[in-house]
Amino acid sequence: MNIKIFVLFICVFTSSLLFAQESNQSSVLKENDVVAICGDSITSNGRYPLFMEAYHFMCGPKTKVKFINFGRWGWRAVKFLPTIDEAVLPSKPTVVTFCYGMNSARGTKPMSESSQISWGKTVKETIQKFKKSGVRKFILASPGVIDSYYFKRSSEIKAPTPEQVATTQSNLKGLRDQAEKVSKDIKVIFADLHSPMIEVMVKAKAKYGKTFAFAGGMRDGIHPGEAGHLVMLFGILKGLGYSGNIGSVNVDLSTGKHSSSTGHVVLGVKGNIIEVESVRYPFCFFKSSKGKLDSHSTRSVSDLFSFNKDLNRLTLIVKGIKTRTAKLTWGNASKTFKREELEKGINLADAFMDDNPFKNTFKKIFNAMHERDRVLGFLKKKRFQNEGMRKRLARELVKIKIVPVKHQLLIEEIK
Q1: Is 364 helix (H, G, I), strand (E, B) or coil?
Q2: Which of 77, 199, 297, 355 is the most buried (most CB within 10 A)?
Q3: Are residues 215 and 236 in the same domain?
Q4: pTM here?
């Protein structure tokens, strides 16, 4: 078997290891969809594509979907177009996400209107080719942003002036607008990555300082870390139409009556203690591997935009509380809420970002996905194609499975 085909098979197979229980909400992606994630080196980096797979696998509707990363280092849309027939279509994608433009707009001189229109024409031709091949849904994502502090061109020794940085950012905004126009002209879904990334970058630098490398650090100020990729994920998931409803638990403490949505089961209500078992997880955020809130941390920016509100709602509704306030303990963490807040509904995923019962399990599965991809990268090289590496891959595949998480909610009235 050709090693390239072997590696692709393993990657998409593990993305399909979903538990049998179906969500009662309509799936944004249909059963057996193949999602081709197309883009330049920012996509090839694999972080937001891995976030996409993790979100669908652990948080989304439980449909069997394959995610394939077709990111190419240094490529532009015009270079990608002629490779589609040979590189992408053999995988028979039904859904495509497309994020190009950074390498076309990154120059420090203004990009002419004709160049922007030419870029848009190439994108149109790309969409038409995919549509003719049978692609059902196409998400046209705008290019993101450059880092306002670290951006530089690798061919230049001197850092660009603030005016040149502004020019490059304007070029990217121009392609963002061109992508939106193309999406309307050819009737595909537009995902704006540029605007939310600008907004979050400004907030992050205001909070952590100008050296917070939101869109990439000293290397080039172009390739973002986990913080930037989280915002990219936000735009693309919204483009794909995810509802963001992770689930809900509804309890009346005065009667003991309870209900829950698919993926969550209330095992019992004993006084003020609620026992729940879940097979659908909220998306979890983490500090960097060094334990810091930096650009390699999703937690550093998770409260700077509406990810939890729009895409990560695990709602707890509690009635029958007699006091004005109550302390809610979920796992090891506690917070105080007004009675009205609990009656209306608390988003547990938002209120307990730093510590919740799902974080360890979420991290284990995510790390296994990441290690799987690293091993697959090794297997592309002939010298690593050995039994030991294949066993290493098999060990990671076994870890990528949904396991029930039992968790307890304790509500204490504050008199």
Answers
A1: helix
A2: 77
A3: yes
A4: 0.91
Task: Calculate the alpha carbon distances from 201 to 97, 195, 345 in Å.
Answer: 23, 10, 30
pLDDT in tens, 63-76: 899 999 999 998 99
Last residue of a domain, one of 178, 207, 240: 240
Compute φ and ψ for 124, nearest 5 degrees.
-60, -45
β-bridge pairing 264-270 and 273-278:
antiparallel
Question: Could you report the per-residue pLDDT of 178-220, keeping only the tens digit for each?
Answer: 999 999 999 999 999 999 999 999 999 999 999 999 999 877 8
Position 248, amino acid:
S
Sign of torsion, CA 43 44 48 50?
positive
Task: Could you list the beta-strand ranges (E) of 236-284.
Answer: 245-252, 258-260, 264-270, 273-278
Last residue of a domain, one of 240, 271, 300: 240
Assess whether 231 and 267 both reside in one domain: no
User: Residue 375 burial by CB count (10 A; 0-12/13-18/19+): exposed, middle or buried?
Assistant: buried
Scored b (16 or more CB within 10 A) or e, 131-166 reads eeeebebbbbbbbbbbbbbbbbbeeeeeebeeebbe
The domain total for the chain is 2
CB 19 within 8 A of CB 402: yes
